[in-house]
């Protein structure tokens, strides 16, 4: 038996229960991992609340972890006991001391990167990779808008886009988060609680608008984000921390021939090659210093409910990690 966080009913952070679970041995094509660090993401909150539907009940949340391989399924080559590996995405269930994973979903972690750093950046970092490099390809000279610029993905988006030569506009809620956003490469920071971000973007871009908006906030920012785009601009909606956006009529896109997408990481790392490419580019940027990873908050795995509460209360910045 190992300890894990289990959810038996949907609701607030209090539904996260610390329980014994049986995980068994790895079958063919699987590995067993003893987790060393587990990333916390807003998607975990969505599953806990029922915004996204869990595949079964009860369930263990969590979409990323770094751990040591402790057992390998029959006939498997390329992974061995003692390897330090990471994964992000499916299957859900990383809020556990140990877990069983498909071997083709784990990637090797370079020895130069500490487990809490790797665990905090896999999901957010590979998300950042596909948003900037594949969903819309940010290039030198582009101007982009990043909402929640001091958040987990927002921080990485700003850093990586700045390194690519883009002009970065970021929205934040506090002076502290503004300072971090500046440090991360934001050329312009907007206090969305005090300023109309659409008017400020218009001012900053001399009325031209931005090539792309990366919006993880959803309901509160969606319409304004569309208004910030230039002709044939890209609206990339990849989260909904303020709630699901209201339905948008297709005609709303027609005035400026806009593109609208709601992508997810899982559709961009479908093959083993795509996964290794994304993780490889990510780890290279961490190792080279292009990406500064802030693991600002660590909690014992047993206190996952506290981590969720702080995340939802916007008391966190950077990355949140659980330590088994």
Looking at CATH, which topology of the largest domain would you report?
A: Quinone Oxidoreductase, Chain A, domain 1
Write the CATH homologous superfamily of the largest domain: Medium-chain alcohol dehydrogenases, catalytic domain
Oligomerization state: single chain
Largest sheet: 7 strands, mixed
The separation of the N and C termini measures 14 Å
Strand percentage lies at: 25-35%
Tell me the series of helices and strands, N- to C-terminal. Answer: EEEHEEEEHEHEHEHEHEHEHEHE
List the SSEs and their pairings.
Blueprint: E1 2-7, E2 16-21, E3 30-40, H1 42-49, E4 64-72, E5 84-88, E6 98-102, E7 107-108, H2 115-135, E8 143-146, H3 152-163, E9 167-172, H4 175-183, E10 188-191, H5 197-204, E11 210-215, H6 222-228, E12 229-237, H7 251-254, E13 259-261, H8 272-288, E14 295-300, H9 304-312, E15 319-323
Parallel strand pairs: 8-9, 8-11, 9-10, 11-12, 12-13, 14-15
Antiparallel strand pairs: 1-2, 3-4, 3-6, 3-15, 4-5, 5-7
Helix pairs in contact: 2-3, 2-8, 5-6
Summarize the structure.
Residues 11-322 form the Enoyl reductase (ER) domain. 29% of the residues lie in helices and 27% in strands.
Overview of the molecule:
Residues 11-322 form the Enoyl reductase (ER) domain. This protein is of the alpha/beta class. The protein folds into 2 domains: 2-121 and 294-323, Medium-chain alcohol dehydrogenases, catalytic domain (Quinone Oxidoreductase, Chain A, domain 1, Alpha-Beta Complex); 140-262, 3-Layer(aba) Sandwich (Rossmann fold), CATH 3.40.50. 29% of the residues lie in helices and 27% in strands. It is built from 9 helices and 15 strands. Strands 3, 4, 5, 6, 7, 14 and 15 form a 7-stranded mixed sheet that branches. Strands 10-9-8-11-12-13 form a 6-stranded parallel sheet, sandwiched between helices. 44% of the residues are buried.
């Amino acid at each position: 038996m190992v300890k894990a966080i289990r959810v038996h009913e949907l609701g607030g952070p209090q539904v996260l229960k610390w329980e014994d679970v049986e995980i068994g041995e790895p079958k063919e094509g699987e590995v067993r991992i003893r987790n060393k660090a587990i990333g916390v993401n807003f998607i975990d909150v969505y599953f806990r609340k029922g915004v996204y539907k869990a595949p079964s009940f009860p369930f263990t949340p969590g979409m990323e972890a770094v751990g040591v391989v402790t057992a390998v399924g029959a006939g498997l080559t390329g992974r061995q006991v003692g390897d330090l590996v990471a994964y992000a995405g499916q299957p859900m269930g990383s809020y556990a001391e140990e877990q069983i994973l498909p071997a083709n979903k784990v990637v090797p972690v370079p020895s130069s990167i500490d487990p809490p750093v790797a665990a905090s950046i896999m999901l957010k970092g590979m998300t950042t990779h596909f948003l900037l490099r594949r969903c819309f390809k940010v290039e030198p000279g582009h101007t982009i808008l990043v909402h929640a610029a001091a958040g987990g993905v927002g921080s990485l988006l700003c850093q990586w886009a700045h390194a690519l030569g883009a002009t970065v506009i970021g929205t934040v809620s506090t002076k502290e988060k503004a300072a971090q956003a500046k440090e991360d490469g934001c050329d312009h920071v907007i206090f969305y609680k005090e300023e109309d971000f659409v008017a400020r973007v218009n001012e900053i871009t001399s009325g031209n608008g931005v090539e792309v908006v990366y919006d993880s906030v959803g309901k509160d920012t969606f319409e304004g984000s569309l208004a910030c785009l230039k002709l044939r601009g890209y609206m990339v909606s990849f989260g909904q921390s303020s709630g699901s956006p209201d339905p948008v009529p297709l005609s709303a896109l027609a005035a400026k021939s806009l593109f609208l997408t709601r992508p997810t990481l899982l559709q961009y790392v479908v093959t083993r090659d795509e996964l290794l490419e994304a993780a490889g580019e990510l780890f290279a940027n961490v190792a080279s210093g292009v990406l500064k990873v802030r693991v600002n908050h660590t909690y014992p795995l047993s206190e996952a409910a506290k981590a969720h509460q702080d995340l939802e209360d916007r008391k966190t910045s950077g990355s949140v990690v659980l330590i088994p």
